[in-house]
Amino acid sequence: MALPRLTGALRSFSNVTKQDNYNEEVADLQMKRSKLHEQIVGLDLTWKKIVKFLNEKLEKSEMQSVNEDLKDLLQAAKQIVGMDHGKEAIESAAAFLFKTFHLRDSVGHKETKAIRQMFGPFPSSSATAACNATNRITSHFCEDSLTALVQMTTDECDDRILFGKNLAFSFDMHDLDHLDELPINGESQKTISLDYKKFLADHFQEHSTPDLKAVEKTNDSFLWCEVEKYLNATLSEMAEATRVEDLCCTLYDMLASVKSGDELQDELFELLGPDGLELIEKLLQNRITIVDKFLNSSNDHKLQALQDNCKKILGENAKPNYGCQVTIQSEQEKQLMKQYRREEKRIARREKKAGEDGEIAEGLCFDPKELRIHREQALMNARSVPVLSRQRDSDVEKIRYPHVYDSQAEAMKTSAFIAGAKMILPEGIQRENNKMYEEVKIPYSEPMPVGFQEKPVYIQDLDEIGQLAFKGMRRLNRIQSIVFETAYNTNENMLICAPTGAGKTNIAMLTVLHEIRQHFQQGVIKKNEFKIVYVAPMKALAAEMTNYFSKRLEPLGIVVKELTGDMQLSKNEILRTQMLVTTPEKWDVVTRKSVGDVALSQIVKLLILDEVHLLHEDRGPVLESIVARTLRQVESTQSMIRILGLSATLPNYLDVATFLHVNPCIGLFYFDGRFRPVPLGQTFLGVKSANKVQQLNNMDEVCYESVLKQVKAGHQVMVFVHARNATVRTAMSLIERAKNNGQISYFLPTQGPEYGHAEKQVQKSRNKQVRELFPDGFSIHHAGMLRQDRNLVESLFSNGHIKVLVCTATLAWGVNLPAHAVIIKGTQIYAAKRGSFVDLGILDVMQIFGRAGRPQFDKFGEGIIITTHDKLSHYLTLLTQQNPIESQFLESLADNLNAEIALGTVTNVEEAVKWISYTYLYVRMRANPLVYGISHKAYQIDPTLAKHREQLVIEVGRKLDKARMIRFEERTGYFSSTDLGRTASHYYIKYSTIETFNELFDAHKTESDIFAIVSKAEEFDQIKVREEEIEELDALLNNFCELSAPGGVENSYGKINILLQTYISRGEMDSFSLISDSAYVAQNAARIVRALFEIALRKRWPAMTYRLLNLSKVIDKRLWGWASPLRQFSVLPPHILTRLEEKNLTVDKLKDMRKDEIGHILHHVNIGLKVKQCVHQIPSVTMEASIQPITRTVLRVTLSICPDFTWNDQVHGTVGEPWWIWVEDPTNDHIYHSEYFLVLKKQVISKEAQLLVFTIPIFEPLPSQYYIRAVSDRWLGAEAVCIINFQHLILPERHPPHTELLDLQPLPITALGCEAYEALYNFSHFNPVQTQIFHTLYHTDCNVLLGAPTGSGKTVAAELAIFRVFNKYPTSKAVYIAPLKALVRERMDDWKVRIEEKLGKK
């Protein structure tokens, strides 16, 4: 018989495998890891150590110069590593340089080689600079102390402490079953007696510790005797047999659980009290022995009774409790157990008294085999049951939805332990772990077999509309065919989860066609009855989708337009468009503005949301608010808006379906990876090195190996990096490695006739790097290149001339360019939004992996992601869809609630609570209350979470009220919107920014104050100052900042200010993080200044309004206000503009000069004409105002505005030029009237004047003058002022006199000339007032205002006017309005008799 393997034995007989259950907290684990990480990093020479060493050894005076040198060294390191890496990498590179150069005085061959190996190609000037700086530093020391510094760090290596458990193996872990006989190496053993008691006795004598000796005689089982001993010592007066049994049962229960020793110790102490300390110690020492013996023991009767008891208690409980499973008991069960034990004791006591104690044990026999079968059965069950399942969840699992193809849910999972996080991975996975990296390979999945009920849909079978739209396609693919019926022939809301590249766009197309077919009558499409909105996550994608849909829908005459931050549309264009492609933010803003676009949002009939899994990213809340708004609109107006959600595969698709109001049995479609057009194999590589520089080097190395492997196999590769300048560096270092290893031949482009043609094209390119890299078969692609170069690179790659393309992620989003393999090198990406390096988002990874595999050529594609080891499990879980997506709505609840209040859709707390129930937040709060800070108890008491939602709303309401964005009356719970809140909502300003403005903003601020306020806005909160940027910021501050920047380079708001001014001055920046920060700042600042402008206008501060309007144009145009307005024309060359500014030629002067004069002044004869044309294209208007007082305090102004410039479509667009017009009072510093005004193209061309009529207040004493100011909304230097002068204004009298009562003969009633009327009056003549106004009332249609004292017969006057209506307009109606109900009633009673009965009128 072969000997048992040691590992097998250890596994079965020891507790080694129990370590599986690693229930130390994850946070704890991470802490230990980071400590270890610090330790490992610390072993090397670090920057901190160098600085510390210098500070200790040198005097203050010397440190000054040394600090400069250190700065130089860092600067050099930055040049060598590259701008796009964080501080850590730069410092560690500097330390590496210091180590390299500390004993050298020049850059030798050896050093160059070392640096090149570490960083790839580098500028030699930087290396020289580093060497010189290092030498200046080291000149202060002798060689020995330096060697000591470098040595010191290596000595510390020896005493590394690793964390983890030090497992002690004791060999008496397990005793063999006493029936077994084992021959060892063929010698027969001395015979083993079958007497169990004797065996036990022998066993304990051989193995046990001395203090067990005393026990073995008393009793058979160790546990039993220990417990008995303890009880004898403590409770001698109780009936101990029953107690022993009971206690053993409980103790065994505890020992067999999966708790760690420490946890058990506490629990045992609670149970046994201070007397039991010895017992606890013994129990824990022999825990394994006890448990194992118990499981394998024979019919020893006391044990038997004990086991039986346990079995009973646990059996009733229907939860198996063998080995290491957790028993979860509810409160009730616990109580039952207690009661049950009490009963047991009572019965046992009674039986004990009856003296039948022998009988109990006899009939009950206990079979270990049976126990084992039970245990296996239990394990089998446990396999399929989720741990800690809630009742509700397990019910959900049982429902099979017809269109959910989710292999993950059905397939068995293997559990792997990756980077310390437990994960479930698909089968067939391969792992490799070596010193440099850990690699996890997920092979591609076979495509799903075609089901028998699946029939492909052929285009020729569709109706005419469908055939037109899908021209050139033969049939729909599998996914499209499966959803076809629901998408094309029903109005159901749908959620479609499918992998990238599986053809989701065409599904959107199907729903669009369904919508069009509903508005198709008698061969005509009613285009003004519907709008379709397609929400795409990025501008690049929006542009691509617009092109795609325009092409397909053109034959149907449907207009598709893009509506994003880049592409503004006028009202008219929106009306003429049937389909809008937009981004979530833009659509949110459009639907927030109730007045203008209410018609627009009400005829939307189909809303398509692309990439719904964005819900868990920062932009999730925007999607939630759009959907919530749409769903509420559907319910309030009972209109039909269909929602289609498209998403990548996500784990909790049911939640998302609930949120989109999708019926899971009809509209929910889930397709997993087997449906990709080209199956995808994924490889994850985690680079292990802790030292940042080494890590970058290893990444390059690993990247090169992966690229080489693919290229050798004849595939093309795309390498994605995350900064524009990293593309060149990566390409260079790959070429460098290939040349050093002599493998460059694999990369060279194949020679052929086409190659020559391609080469010619490349040589024409203006981009130096593209030209240099091409001969080696490499190229680069990023958004900073010219459009034509990008197109060139794309075509070269798709024709196969380029083997390796290094690009940024924009390529994956905007252009459909597949390759067999894609590699993501490094996952740290600089996010301006966060102001730091963050992990590449899952969305980007999926999009990039979606580019792997070319549908027509490849059997499968490969996606490789190279990251650091600590992020490995993060990406694995994300890409194998393990994390349910949660809602991020709470963070922006205040802003979204304010938007709804401003829109008028939420007016009180109750409605707000209802509104929250439409969000994804609500769906997830109910599914997973703990994440959102709701305790389980609270959830049980309040399952709809109404209380919790109300709490949220009230809290947010108070915050908004405090910021004056709404008015919130807590007593009644009503919200009302304010100007400030509406402005914030329209301009997307965050609530905390408004708070800042309330604090800092007033009517008298200069330009630089405004910049300072803007740079403190919450929107820029995440922008940090990094040490490596300080120098560059300093340079920018000195070169480009025209205004002071409070805060300076050290503070983040100072940095924002500097970036904003540099952006306006069009300054150049080097560091990648600054470039992207700057773009982010400019984008947001423009919006914030616009909002401030509106706030100032609403507060009626003229000087401030004017300043802010100008500043917002300054940011838009990137021109300072004092530059020449002609700089806004790109056609004029810069040197001419500079000359214009030097000569101080203003626009007005230039208007009066002839073109040849201008040419002479500028020493450039031909340019005169161009300048003259530009001058006349700057928008300008002439205004004339005429005034007319209405009363002494109200003045009517008639303003005629005449455009005075030439129109040019390239410059002005095709619609009109917007202007702001306001009337300001310079003495009181107040705006009395303001309006937004559009000068239309046709008016400019026909020079037609426009009239504006408005009223303004005037005060006494009369001010000298008011100004009417017109300022262009877009153009700098385009403004006009018109003065209203009050010198010759004649106001009406203060109290106009009464109308003179003329001395007239009273009129007899016969003047009515109608007997029926005369009969109504019981007097013969009208009184003087009535006499005087009789003619006007009875014989004319003039409007009359009659003011007369009570009782002077005004009602009769009214009747006269009514008779006039009866006479002249018998079919018309007369309306009488009285202020009080009583008066109306009185008139009714009177006129019912007189007019109805006597005149026969109604």
From TrEMBL:
What the entry lists under SMART domains is as follows: DEXDc, HELICc, Sec63
Q: Which Gene3D superfamilies is this protein grouped with?
A: 5' to 3' exonuclease, C-terminal subdomain, C2 domain, P-loop containing nucleotide triphosphate hydrolases, Sec63 N-terminal domain-like domain, Winged helix-like DNA-binding domain superfamily/Winged helix DNA-binding domain
Q: Which Pfam families match?
A: ASCC3_N, DEAD, Helicase_C, Sec63, WHD_SNRNP200
Residue ranges occupied by any Helicase ATP-binding domain in the UniProt entry:
485-668, 1335-1402
Could you tell me the keywords of this UniProt record?
Answer: ATP-binding, Coiled coil, Cytoplasm, Helicase, Hydrolase, Nucleotide-binding, Nucleus, Repeat
Q: Which ranges of the sequence are coiled-coil?
A: 19-80
Tell where it localizes. Answer: Cytoplasm, Cytosol; Nucleus
Q: Where is the Helicase C-terminal domain?
A: 695-913
The superkingdom of the source organism is Eukaryota
Gene Ontology molecular functions: ATP binding; helicase activity; hydrolase activity; nucleic acid binding
Quote the cellular component terms of the Gene Ontology held in the record: nucleus
Q: Give the protein's recorded name.
A: Activating signal cointegrator 1 complex subunit 3 isoform X3
* Protein's organism: Camelus ferus
The taxonomy runs: Eukaryota, Metazoa, Chordata, Craniata, Vertebrata
